[in-house]
Amino acid sequence: MRVALMTAGSRGDVAPYTGLGHRLALAGHQVTLVTHERFGPLAAAAGLAFHPLPVDPREQLASAQGQGLHRSRGGVGKLARVVALARSLVGDLAEALLAAAPGHDVLLLSSSLAPLGHTIAEGLRLPGLGLYLQPLTATAEFAPPVLGAHSWGRAGNRWAGLAVSAAVDSIFTEADRTMRTRLGLPPTSLRRARRARDRRDTPVLHGFSELVVPRPHDWRPGLSLAGYWWPHDPPAAELPPRVADFLAAGPPPVFVGLGSATVPDPAAVSRTLVRALRAAGLRGILQRGWSGLHAEADDLLTVDDLPHSLLFPATAAVVHHAGAGTTAAGLRAGVPSVPLPVQFDAGFWAARLTALGVSPQALPLRRLDADSLAAALRAATTDPAFTTRARTLAARLAAEDGALPVLTALDRLPG
Prior knowledge:
This protein is α/β, with parallel strands linked by helices. It has helices spanning 15-26, 40-45, 57-62, 64-67, 75-87, 90-100, 114-123, 153-182, 190-199, 241-248, 266-279, 308-311, 324-333, 346-355, 370-382, 384-398, 403-411; strands spanning 2-6, 30-36, 49-53, 106-109, 128-132, 204-206, 223-225, 254-257, 284-287, 300-303, 317-320, 337-339.
């Protein structure tokens, strides 16, 4: 089957699909990763065909509009700003998505492109399946992850979930209207189209484990949790010599990285992180990431992108921005975490880490100070209960096969 895996966003919104795509290819499917041009090397490393999308997410986050996200203190304000940013870019993405779709038998759609992707699938008479990395469908059991970890009660949570869905729809409204006309489809709203898919119980598979986020009881049957889709690492991948040497030169260090998150003052954040590590008596590996973290000394090393699956198991703990991908990597490695949630769904994943008992606490990056981080690091690295729980959960996650439900869903498609 010719499969188009369509996603947009930061590296964390792309990397899990490289491992899933590689697994689908091993099963005999022809897989094309459709995403931003900067991630083409990830597709090549996984042995996947690649179709580039316009828009560079890193440039957008570094722009004046992207930096404006830091001026919003609450989840609602950040959501409003990111909706405005995305709405200004979606027109270019729409044309590229339509160009990528012909010649495929099925479109597999991330949540970031699903509203428009389903319209394209309908117009080309192709099946479209949702493959989501976050639990986005409204539920009474928790508030929408993009708004953080705060709960408004069962009724409030469900209402907030519906409001977030409406906000996401607003990103695509104009582009979708144009696309439906272009494809000869009858006019309808994205809300009505989504409700029609719900009535048909159109499958949406989620790339995280029920061990981490239990499936909400009020979801419809077609919304399933597949298990994690791990990023693809080539079999011959290994850590750079300088990293291996640093690991061998002393006790296990702490990994510190903010992934694709950006910060207004990278130097100040780096200084706070270094003070905390030294106050806790720990060595550190800082990942530069999109924030530009940096520190070099005998007890510190700065690195660029490298496989978390190779590095994390060799660390004493991981300090991270609580993005879905890095959260998953820490859980897979079986090491304690100290999340520093920055924005979007980070507060949700940080709360899950503390609820699972693999993190002593979450420390929002906006209010971070060295003393609090040092205390959390001491707890994470000296209390054996955190490591025991992390290792136990990692062993259970290793027994899951997140790609298998996707393969099964493809096998069930007609034709």
